[in-house]
Design brief:
single chain; 110 residues; mainly alpha; Arc Repressor Mutant, subunit A; 0% strand; rod-shaped
Length: 110
C-alpha cells in the first residue's frame, strides 16, 4: 500500500470516527486531532525517506564526477546542477543517470 493509499485509509477511518463520536459531546476533536497528526507524520516520514535516498544518489553522482573529471565537490555539484537545469530534468534523475552510466546524460561535456 502506497502512502497516498494509506492516507486515504486514515482519512476514511477519521471520517468514521467523527461520525461515531458525533454523539459524544467533546470526545471527537481530540481523537480527530490524533488521526490528523498521524496522517501528517506518515507523510513527513515518507518525504524524508525520499529526501534521504535522493541525497545519497546525488552525493554518489557528485563523487563519480569528482573522480572522473578531477573536480572539487562544488565544481562537480555545479556541473550536475547545470546539466539538470539545461535539460529541464530533476537533479535526482540526472544523478541517477550518472550512477548508471558513469557520465552525464548525452555525453555533451556537461
Amino acid at each position: 500500500m502506497g502512502w497516498s493509499e494509506a492516507d486515504d485509509a486514515l482519512r476514511e477511518s477519521r471520517d468514521a470516527v467523527a461520525r461515531a463520536l458525533a454523539v459524544v459531546d467533546g470526545a471527537a476533536p481530540p481523537v480527530l486531532r490524533l488521526v490528523d497528526r498521524a496522517v501528517f507524520l506518515r507523510r513527513e516520514r515518507d518525504h524524508l525517506r525520499v529526501a534521504l535516498m535522493t541525497n545519497r544518489v546525488i552525493a554518489a553522482a557528485v563523487g563519480i564526477l569528482m573522480a572522473l573529471r578531477q573536480l572539487t565537490y562544488d565544481e562537480a555539484y555545479a556541473l550536475l546542477l547545470d546539466c539538470s537545469q539545461t535539460r529541464n530534468r530533476k537533479l535526482r534523475e540526472v544523478a541517477a543517470d550518472v550512477l548508471e552510466t558513469g557520465a552525464l546524460p548525452n555525453g555533451k561535456g556537461h
